# Entry
Amino acid sequence: MEFSSDVNLQTLNTFGLACRARWFAAPTTLEQLQDLLKSAIFKQAARFLILGGGSNVLFLKDFDGCVITPHLYGLRLLESPGDEWLVEVGAGENWHSMVCTLMEQNLPGLENLALIPGTVGAAPVQNIGAYGLEIQERFAWLDALEIQTGKMCRFDLEACEFGYRSSVFKGVAAGRFIIMSVTLALPKTWKAVSHYADVDNALRQQGLSASPQNIFEIVVAARRSKLPDPRLMGNAGSFFKNPVMTQLQADALKTDYPSLPSYQQADGTVKLPAAWLIEQCGFKGVRRGAAGVHDRQALVLVNYGGATGEQLLSLAKEIQTEVHSRFGLMLEPELLIV
Ligand code: FAD
Ligand code: EPU
# Structure
C-alpha cells in the first residue's frame, strides 16, 4: 500500500472546499495502515491528518502532508452477557447507514443520532450528540492504533474522557491515535429518549407512541427541515459549540435578555443556544460572497459554491466578534480547522 500524490479533497469534505492533499491513502486493513505508517513518505511528512467523512473539518488551504482515511468496514455482534448488546463496528462505516442497519436488525438505541453525517471512527472524537443523546451513552470501548508505536490500545468509557462535543481525542490524545473500531453498547431493554423539545412535541402533536421507529422518523424529519444537505449546499453542521456556563452567569444574561432560551444540564450548568445569539446579532441568512449563514439554522455556515476556507473563517470571526461585543461570550468553533 502506498500514498497517492496530489489528491483532490473537494468531494472528501462536506464544505466542498477545493483543496488538495500532498499525499493521500485509504487503507482497508490494519496491515496496510501499519505499512503506511512505516513508509518513508509518512516518516518525512511535515504533518498528517486522519480524515473520516470530512463533515467536521474546515480546510484553509492545501494540506502539505499525509491524509489517511481508514476504510475499515464491518459490523459484528459480540457475545453480550450483560444488559446491553455489544456491537463492534469498523471505523470507516458510515454512521447513519450503521444506525439504519442496527434498527433493521431490531437493535435500537441510536435513533436519536440518526442522519449525523460522517464515519463511525470519528463519532467518539467529538462525542457526537443530537436530540437528547450522545454517543457516550451507547459506548462500550474503542480500539485505536497508536501512531508512534504502531500498537493497538483499548479505550474504555473513562479513558475517552467524554464531554459536550469533546473527548480525549480532542485533548491530550489528539493526533496520536487512529480509531480502528468502536464497540457500541445498546440497551437490551430499550427506553425512549424523548425529552428533547422537538421529539417530545412531534410525538404529542402527531399522537405517536414513543417507539424506536417513530423517534427515528421524527429526528430525520427535524434534521431535514433545519439542516442543509451537504450534497446540495456545503456545510459542516454547527460551526460553533453552544456556550455552557454557571446558573449565575446565565441568570445575569437573562436579566438583560429575558427571551434568551436556556437549557439546564444534569451537572447544574446551563447551555445557551449559540444559534439564538447569532440570530440576535442579525447574521441569520447573511452572505459574504459565497460564504454565508444558513437561513434556517444560524449556527450553520454554508458554502454557496466556490467559497474558500479563509472566507468561511473570516465570516466566523465576524460572528464571534459581534456575539462577544453584544453578549460578552466568545463562541468556540466545534469543528477542526486545518
Ligand atoms: P471528519 O470530519 O473527517 O473528522 C473529524 C475529526 O475526527 C477530525 O479531528 C479527524 O482527524 C478525526 N477523525 C476522523 N476519523 C478518525 C479516526 N478513525 N481516528 C481518529 N481520529 C479521527 N455532529 C454532532 O455531534 N451532532 C450533530 O447533530 C451533527 N450534525 C451535523 C449535520 C451536518 C449537516 C454536518 C455536515 C455535520 C454534522 N455534525 C454533527 C458534525 C459531524 O457529522 C460529526 O462530527 C462527525 O462525527 C464527523 O465525522 P467524519 O467522519 O466526517 O469526521
Ligand atoms: N435557534 C435560534 N435560531 C436558529 C436556530 C435555533 O434562535 O436559527 C434557537 C432556538 O431557540 C432553538 C435552539 O436554538 O430552540 C436550539 O436549536 P436546535 O434544536 O436546532 O439545536 P442547536 O443547539 O442549534 C444542537 C447541536 C446540533 C444538533 C442539535 C439537535 C451543537 C453545537 N449543535 O444544535 O449538532 O443536531 O442540537 O440536538 O450542540 C453539530 O454538532 O454539528 C450539530 C448539528
Observations:
- The two ends are 25 Å apart (CA to CA).
- Residues 18 and 264 are 40 Å apart (CA to CA).
